Amino acid sequence: MPKNLAELAHAALMAGHTPGAATSHAVPIRLDSSTEAAVADTCIRDGLGSVLLFHRRKDARFAEELYFSTRLDDGSWAVAEHLSGGAMGIDPTDARKIASVLNGRSLALFGEAETELLTGRPQADDGYEMLRFFTLLVDKEASHLEIKNDSPEAGPGSSLIHKSLISQVALLALFPGERLTIRAMVRKGTSSYHLGEPYELIGSDPGHVADSPIWRDEDSSMTNPES
Questions:
Q1: Torsion angles phi and psi, residue 13, rounded to 5
Q2: Tell me: the pLDDT tens digits for 49-88?
Q3: In 3D, which of 149, 142, 69, 83 has the Cα closest to residue 107?
Q4: Which long-range contacts (CB under 8 A, 24 or more apart) does 94-97 make?
Q5: CB distance 148 to 181 below 8 Å
């Protein structure tokens, strides 16, 4: 197992977890008695990779951390950098507590962060863009998410994708001006069905500069993500 959270995030990206692909068994995706940290989800957009991790701190509280990396020319990933994180209000392994928060919904907003990062995309100002990260709680019956890109500039090939789930928390990263409609899906045999109502996510306004990250953090005193 990776020695620290940054290594775990990097290993998750190197395992090639993309929509429709499974995370390597070498990367822990479940918190249990023998695993102190696990991958909740990954999101890869245009050679940019983000990873959400869950872990137990020394005080036994559950915490989440968001990491970010870029794909190198050889297809590998750069060292993952910590963006934000904090103590969690619920046990992410407890399906009943998640169901209580969902309260009959198939999707619910769980966390949000906004930060300026070097993307290198042609439309980026000096190479930097304000990315907005969302985490959603997902009904335990869902097998995957259907993501429809409703942005005006969305091309035909990127208008609809399916994102596999490896936990009940899904991570999504949006570029400025993007609008995504998310639906939880249930796979039955060779068919898939919508589960509950859709959820809309909106990226930051183009040109907007955030004063500070807005990741939900119930313990602002935590400065070391390894603790």
A1: -70, -40
A2: 999 999 988 887 889 999 999 999 998 999 999 999 888 8
A3: 142
A4: 95/140, 95/168
A5: yes
